[in-house]
Structure prediction request, 641 residues.
Amino acid sequence: MDLKAFSNLCINPYPEITALRKYFSDNDKSVFLTTEFAEMSYIQKFQYFIHNYMKIYQAIAQQYPDKVEQLVDVMQFVAPLGTISLTFNGLKPSIKLLGTPEQFKKWYELIYSGRLIGAYAQTEIGHGSDVQSLQLTATYNPETKTFVLNSPSTRSIKFWPGNLGMQATHCVCQAQTYINGKHHGLHTFVVPIRDPKTFKQYEGVEAGDIGSKLAYSWGDNGFLKLTNYHIPRENLLMKYFKVEEDGTVSSKGDKNAIKIGYGGMLGLRVTLSVYFLAETFRGAVLAYRQWKRSSELDSIKRRRLLKSFSFVYTGMMTLRSMTLMMRSFNENIHKNPKKALEEMVELHLLASAYKSLYSWTLTYCLREYGVDQSVGNLLTTGITGLYGDTIPGATYEGENSVMLQQTARGLCKFMQDVENEEFKKVPEAFKFLVDLRELLDKADEMKGNVERVEDLLNYEKIEELIDTIALFNVKECYELMKMHIVGGNSVNVTWNDKTQGRMVEMALEVSRGLTYKMSKQILFDNEKRKALGEKEVTLLKGLLLVHGLDVLHRNVNLASRFKIGGNPERLIALIGEAQEILAKKLEGSLDDIVEGHPFYEEELYYVRDFKAWSPVEGTSDRVKRSIIEKESFINTFSPKL
Ligand SMILES: Cc1cc2nc3c(=O)[nH]c(=O)nc-3n(C[C@H](O)[C@H](O)[C@H](O)COP(=O)(O)OP(=O)(O)OC[C@H]3O[C@@H](n4cnc5c(N)ncnc54)[C@H](O)[C@@H]3O)c2cc1C
Prediction:
């Protein structure tokens, strides 16, 4: 297997997606994002996504009729779909996980016959990360057998959800639920908002577009206000919480089973991580080509790119592991719910961290490739557009700092498990906390001394250093948390006020270190790395070391504080030396590394050849349009002279 095939295997969740991409590359390239996209108007972009949605759905239905459900969930990996794909990866998972089988069957038929376009409408103007404070109310009326929905204040208006402004016929909403005067907390409802034939809003519904945005202009982001709006009782998703016609309430399943229901957005978080990573890959390829064409590719640029590609390839392998874990979780939800629950804890903590790590790194890399380079500011290079469109990735589907706080919280809890010798409670990915626990007694001694540069070209040694730093990093945060709680602060104040910054920093670095471990596991396992050729394995192992050294370099201050890796100045010098050795070794292979990308040529924006470029002969429409009609221009001014 060559690098390109391996990248496709890692990035595309199913082989059928790779085959569909090939099908469109051979038969209808118009589905791919090309240079024209940058110059399209909002309406043209919108139409482009809708056409893609229909074409890709049809291709799936014709070529894989037995796998429609599985494949449409990930059809945005074939070609971009904008917000419209939220029907399948926003609304549908909620119905599947929180609805009864009968409810799912009913909505399934509407979804898969194209009569339902969906939105996932959780966020309100005043309530984003703080889900528990959502204000939309659903009050049951036993006489009409309906729930009456109301947005009681401006802050309770749903705001931002994709598809909601123009396209959605239905959305899933969380609402504070009241039955017979009693408050039952938040529950999830399917809410019809527009007639699927006319797209006219129903009475009691006010919805629309939230207005122009910095970028992401093609996204249909909307608002929704509901006033005395009745929906049938059956629209409450009742797998775990049932309301009878007369208003009798019963709960089904234990607390743990209910938690699985909230795993609905996990899949989307993993999918988004893959999307962010793929776009970083695209940006790196574009930058490479652009830099190569416009100037000499000097060694500074080569090294910056090597670092980016090391991040991209290790990220790809890490996310391959995540996709496989996600698949196992989905299978176990029905086969083995106890196992699914264990998997969910690990998946949730990793997906929260990776969604954040990859969305932040994407904008960081694109800024470095494009926005900081004059030529990258041209829309036709594709880089600036990608940059703008991906900035909100840090906010949607879980604000990054809040997500990382959750990962940090899990890590502190596992440190407590280690302290209590409850080792079995620590999931596989975080087992280094158990394996290295004896080092905690050696806080004042030097650990993992690095003596020679060869130590830093050794995969095992790098892993040991990364793990040791992570162990002490988690331990320090755990102690900090305990100190605030013992000092009289509540858990909430401790988390949200006293420790947030430090916790976010810790979770980010620990998860960065985990990408080294997870990609190493794939690369050093014949079965997992598939039939990847020897030459390719050698290249990827080189990139793995580049990535490992980058992680160490970023953590050198922590290493010094925790007495890890020897004298800090010497450690920095040796890391630099090792980076130099690797750069020399890999620089000559940069072309092979770049060409291992998973894209078709038409998916890479047009990159202008600056050496041959001339404004008059330029191929861009904009250049042709911008030539001033001299006659009328001069006539405008001359009479006044
Ligand atoms: C392009 C785009 C698409 C979106 N699509 C959807 C969608 O389809 N459906 C949907 O329901 N929503 C959607 N959203 C909304 C998105 O999920 C929310 O914006 C997000 O959850 C953050 O909420 P917020 O904007 O209210 O910010 P807040 O949660 O108020 O966060 C603002 C700041 O406060 C900090 N903060 C928040 N909580 C804490 C805490 N406990 N402790 C310490 N600091 C904290 C955060 O770190 C952040 O810096 C979308 C948003 C965007 C930008």
Notes: The radius of gyration is 27 Å. The first helix runs from residue 3 to 11.
